[in-house]
Amino acid sequence: MAGKDNPWGKPPKDGDGGSGKDDGPSSETPSGDKSRGPRNPWLPPSGSGSGGDRPGSRRPANIEDIFKNRGPEGPRRRSGGPGGPGGPNFRIPQRPNGKSWLPLIIGGLVALLLVATSVHLVGPQEKAVVKTLGNYTRMLDSGLKVTAPWPIETVEIEDVEGVRAVQVPENRAQAKLILTGDQNLVDLSYIVRWNIKDLAGFKFSLADPIETVREVAEAAMRASVAEKTLDETFSGQGRAEIELDVRERMQRALDAYNAGITVIGVEIDKADPPADVVDAFRDVSVAEQNADAARNQARGYAQQVLAQAEGEAEAFDKVYEQYRLAPEVTRQRLYYETMERVLSQTDKTIVETDGVQTYLPLPEVNRRRSANGVGPVAPPSQSSGPQANTGGQ
Questions:
Q1: Which structural domains are found in the chain, ordered by start?
Q2: pLDDT attached to residue 348
Q3: Closest by alpha carbon to 268, among 190, 188, 355?
Q4: Which residues are CB-neighbours of 273 under 8 A, at least 6 positions away?
Q5: How far apart are CA 205 and CA 214, in angstroms?
Q6: Which of residues 255 and 374 earns the better pLDDT score?
Q7: Longest C-alpha distance within the chain, in Å?
Q8: Based on the number of CB atoms within 10 Å of its own CB, is 260 exposed (0-12), middle (13-18) or buried (19 or more)?
Q9: Per-residue pLDDT, 22
Q10: At how many degrees (to 10) do helices 209-225 and 236-256 cross?
Q11: Ranked by mean pLDDT, which of 74-88, 141-155, 180-194 comes out on top?
């Protein structure tokens, strides 16, 4: 600060050695300088004609200086032209001929907007509807198409061949209880697959096509399940019939609405009893299965007995035919067969000699001797007199 004015007080004296020390506005300050007060170091020096200040001196800032420095005649900022970039005096660079680039920029943006809203690329699986001033006018097939620019004509492109799916209910964890024909409740979850048949009807006939498909599917499912029993709903064949019936009902309802939708298929994803009674339902199912098993066993036994009776009756008819041809021979044969069948299952002793006791309990004696560890008693030989036989004849 040597050799320069002190911004906070009077200029340094020659005897200060350029130290820049300032003794403040003490008695050394002339009485005529008291009105000036402390000087602002950031204001440019003013000449003698401004407020009576001497050349090189500084004076306090006022409101006029603030607005003067922000105006066009103020000092230039270091960053560039008057007011700086983006300031109040910012200007777009001019063309070589001195004209502004703004009209060309606006024209280019307008041309780009016209081209972007006039040329449309429609995919191979897509179709587009054209609305002129908000009213439907025509349909566009796949390919590169040109229309009037926006806002005269607007184009809406949709995929008409892609398969779309609607889940009912939307959350599989949510229960969807439906009443069956035998007054039972079943928790059903199913998927409806569909696509767009008529894009104009799909766009302008329904306020919310997806919600309409969901509500029509639910109504058709309730009507179809109400015609089936609970067992049919759980069985595979019953499910297939319900799915086909729901698809037909939905298609009829959507065609009546002119919805432009084709129902491809309905698939039952889950068919369970209500969660509150699932344990009781399982107990009932087990009891029904046990009852079915018992009934099947009884039917098998009845069929077996019936077949045996029929076989015996057929055998008796054959014997009766032989009896009619030779009664004596047949009667004797029946007697022998009956005695053989009865006596073969009992312990017996047959004695064929006169004057001998007619019954000798040899089988019982042999059984007792065997229990005591003694060998069986041999029947008497033919030379000793009586002849015994412990066989089966």
A1: 1-70 (no CATH), 116-159 (no CATH), 165-272 (3.30.479.30), 347-389 (no CATH)
A2: 66
A3: 190
A4: 185, 186, 187, 281
A5: 16
A6: 255
A7: 187
A8: buried
A9: 46
A10: 130
A11: 180-194
